[in-house]
Amino acid sequence: MLRPIFQLRLVTRNYAGLESVIEDFLQQAAASGEGTLGQTIDAAGFGLAGVVVDGCLHAENLRWALDVPALTRKLNLKNIVLLNDVTATALSLDRLSASDLVQLNHGTPQKNATRAVIAAGTGLGEAILFWDGQQYRVERSEAGQGDFAPRTDREIELLHHLKNRLPHVSCEEIVAGRGFLRIHEFLNPSVRHASFDAPEGNAASEITQRGLAQSCPICVETLAFWTEIYGAMAGNFALQTLALGGVYVAGGIAAKVLPKLKEGAFIQAFRGNGKLASVLARIPISVVVNEDAPMLGAAYQALISCRSTRDTKDMEITAGRIG
């Protein structure tokens, strides 16, 4: 069982690489009196916003070069686990409590059936959990980089609008955080808010907050349009994976716009009007509201990585989510 001993949120753009993040983290942990300086760390797990292939990270939103063998030597650690952050979230699901999940659709889950995780945040990540006869295993997916498939006339107009501005209109370009401003500008380019042009402005945050507060009609429309598109994408992913065991909506955006997701448009778009709408209606859908889920998944994988070397019943493991 893992025991958290220190937790800290650091902004990745303030660091040149993962090594400097870890060094700062350990120093601040030691200064707090809860740190591990001078103690042996047996394993470290990291959930990373990018594709991890053969121990190397390939990320568009994180400009760091990461390599497991080099990082292991640099940090003098026996075991380092690098995971995609959505894969880490998927690995955390069986460790989460009921309070970490909010159900949008109770559905009727099939025992040991495939599950799916979809997570919109800085990017759009997806993962698949399949039953191997004894336990769930996670398979990564880059379906978020697939082409955006419009369903309605307005979505077709949005696609044409974005094709003139982007080399590739992927699903991620619309439902990731940067998609809110794109949708807002598509609906009405004459309406501008302070964050839209500020160097450190967060347009997605302002649009969603104004949309939930109903203080700007275009923001309200943007949030509603985004919710329908995201619901349809989640439904398509559920069909592609036949996720009869449940769909988990994770990532940084879902918890922030939870009231909108609960209204019903997300579920309606998820089900759609296709031949298998009745099947989709029976799939349970839950929102992961515990933002530490990727960290927990990475930590438990780190725990597994060093089980062969010592008794890990009550180990304390340093784990982080980077991205």
Description of the molecule:
With 323 residues, the protein is of the alpha/beta class. The chain has helices at 18-32, 68-75, 85-92, 153-163, 172-175, 179-187, 194-197, 203-213, 217-241, 252-256, 258-261, 265-271, 277-281, 293-305, and strands at 43-48, 51-53, 56-58, 79-84, 101-105, 115-120, 124-131, 136-141, 246-250, 285-288, 318-322. The chain has a six-stranded mixed sheet, sandwiched between helices.
Characterize this entry briefly.
This protein has 323 residues and is of the alpha/beta class.
Give a quick set of tags describing it.
single chain, alpha/beta, 323 residues, 3-stranded parallel sheet
Main sheet: strands, sense, barrel = 6 strands, mixed
Radius of gyration: 20 Å
Could you give the order of strands across the largest sheet? Answer: 5-10-9-6-7-8
- The average pLDDT score comes to 88
H/E series: HEEEHEHEEEEHHHHHHEHHHHEHE
Query: What's the tally of helices?
Result: 14
How large is the share of residues in beta strands? 15-25%
**What is the CA–CA distance across the termini?**
26 Å
Give me the count of strands: 11
In helices, the fraction of residues equals 25-40%
> Which class best fits the helix and strand makeup?
alpha/beta
Low-confidence stretches: 311-315
* Shape call: globular
Work out the oligomeric state of the chains in this entry. Answer: single chain
